[in-house]
Amino acid sequence: MGPRIGEGPQMPDKDSKATMDTEDTYGSKASSEPQNLRPRVFHSIKFFVLCHSLLQLAQLMISGYLKSSISTVEKRFGLSSQTSGLLAAFNEVGNTALIVFVSYFGSRVHRPRMIGCGAVLVALAGLLMTLPHFISEPYRYDHSSPEDMSQDSEASLCLPMTSAPTPTPSNGSCSSYTEAQHLSVVGIMFIAQTLLGVGGVPIQPFGISYIDDFAHHSNSPLYLGILFAVTMMGPGMAYGLGSLMLRLYVDIDRMPEGGINLTSKDPRWVGAWWLGFLISAGMVALAASPYFFFPREMPKETHELRCRRKVLASAASPVSEGENSPSEQNPGESLKKQDGLVQIAPNLSVIKFIKVFPRVLLRTLRHPIFLLVVLSQVCMSCMVAGMATFLPKFLERQFSITASYANLLIGGLTIPSAIVGIVVGGVLVKRLHLGPMRCGALCLLGSLLCLLFNLPLFFMGCSTHQIAGIIHQPSTQPGLELFPGCAEPCSCPLEDFNPVCDPSTRVEYITPCHAGCTSQVAQEGLDKSQVLYTNCSCVSGHGPVLAGSCDSACSHLVLPFILLVSLGAALASLTHTPSFMLILRGVKKEDKTLAVGIQFMLLRVLAWMPSPVIHGSAIDTTCVHWALSCGRRAVCRYYDNDLLRNRFIGLQFFFKTGSLVCFALVLAILRQQSKEAGHKSTTSSPGLEQQRL
């Protein structure tokens, strides 16, 4: 075993003494702390990598969980898709506002403790997200009934003896207290999402820099690879957790005495969305606890230095005869050459840092390769952000599947496909030793194939079935209005929602009352009871209708659809590593760290923040029937499926086309630069070109 800082005195040889002298600069502050009061495990960078992998996994799990339950939150609190998209985007607001200053304060703070404090804030924000469930009234899926226990019985039937002027219950409940409670609930969720973003600011950058500082330089890529591999499983686990939680009823902690008469296939079903936030917040809190015991600086890894000494000793004589390699240059000289913002930032005050930052930002944005690659990544991120936020809802509406099954498909197929695409892209870059030109060609090929696999999605779907008084198909019976003559004596409440389906004609009615049904029958099946409504005056033959919405005629297309989406996600992820290499090789060496920070900042500002709002607004334009709450539009009950599919997939096609165009311009510029470089080298000195080759 080699010498360790804090152990008893040993007699190192000449080489190891020189090595330790260079490393004492990292461990001097760490040795001043009471190390014997800390367990030895907290001075191991391997244990830090393990803790940080688990923390980033839990953090991405809690930040991505809202996307898995976005349609459920809309139904529970009466939100439009635009509002829910804005809610999802608020996770990036706090993150973007503070991420720029992380590079300034990164070397001046106790990084493990800052990570721990940020993780605690993330856990508290997750608990705050569950607060609306506990301060709200129990969920009432049938507003025409005063008690949940009597819902689905006589409340939604056609009762001619009911007097017409009876006010609707919603008008009676629209008090100032109800509106204030709704605003407070929505405000709490927005604040919680903002705090989620703020708490996540120090976690990734401080953790990566801490690993890179105290891991051996040959181990650092391995540790970071393990970190990213574990972290990438977070979104998939978020969708998996959403699939499990949404199978449970939202008020599982306060079920009514008579139970509920809903199944997860009912459009009024609301799952236990809040339970996933509790679980993931607990995981973040557990993962955050070790960070308060890590030292500010720990001894740098030395376990591979002995092997490297043997290699350097055997190669000492050849090296001394030739020129010194860049790695053996004087450290002072190499530091003088690095005059970027990253090197001078610790010596600047906050005001001077703010003044210098715009100038360096403009200098970085002048690089055409950097600008075009970032724009292509912005387009890809817009596509990913919109797909991740609203793809579960799209699958629910387009193919009549449950929210739980939609999350299972995304978490089990789409997310792993994206991970495989990222890994394959990195392997291709490493194995084939791709230069900038070939990296640009690989990005262009991946974008082109992703765009081509997007085209069949426009045709994989079907139109919305006929809904009495809302959507009328020319091929079916004419003359249906919101209140046909057969339902006029029933005095149906305007805001009641208990859909029933006529299986013979595939016509859906908003409530049994709108179908003119006067009685209800429950048939016991093999695994569950089936509710039928009979004596329906608005149904041909007065036949029975089934409780629940009519199933989609193209439910069998959901698996081919999600397979194409997953294949497109893999091809889009294929461009991740080569585009990142283009950024690193397209800017000056001293600006690389800042360029990566600017890249992530632009992705958040231009993609992850506006994209969910854009997709949500586009989805809202396809709504054909809104639920009303106190005179305002709440959640959408029915969409025009053809319009929804064309606009949702059309937005994806638009962003993929933008990414393809940017990569094509990048490749054209690289070819032009290559020709100019080749022309200059051949005209100046043919021997120099041969030496470079």
How would you briefly describe this protein structure?
The chain is mainly alpha-helical and 693 residues long. Helices cover 59% and strands 5% of the residues. Residues 322-332 have a biased composition (Polar residues).
Task: Explain this structure.
The chain has 693 residues and is mostly helical. It is built from 27 helices and eight strands. Strand 2 (500-502) and strand 3 (507-509) form a beta hairpin. Helix 19 runs antiparallel to helix 23 and helix 20 (403-431) runs parallel beside helix 22 (558-573). The longest helix has 44 residues, at 641-684. One of its GO terms (cellular component) is basolateral plasma membrane. Keywords: Cell membrane, Disulfide bond, Ion transport, Membrane, Transmembrane, Transmembrane helix, Transport. Residues 322-332 have a biased composition (Polar residues). InterPro entries: Kazal_dom, MFS_trans_sf, OATP.
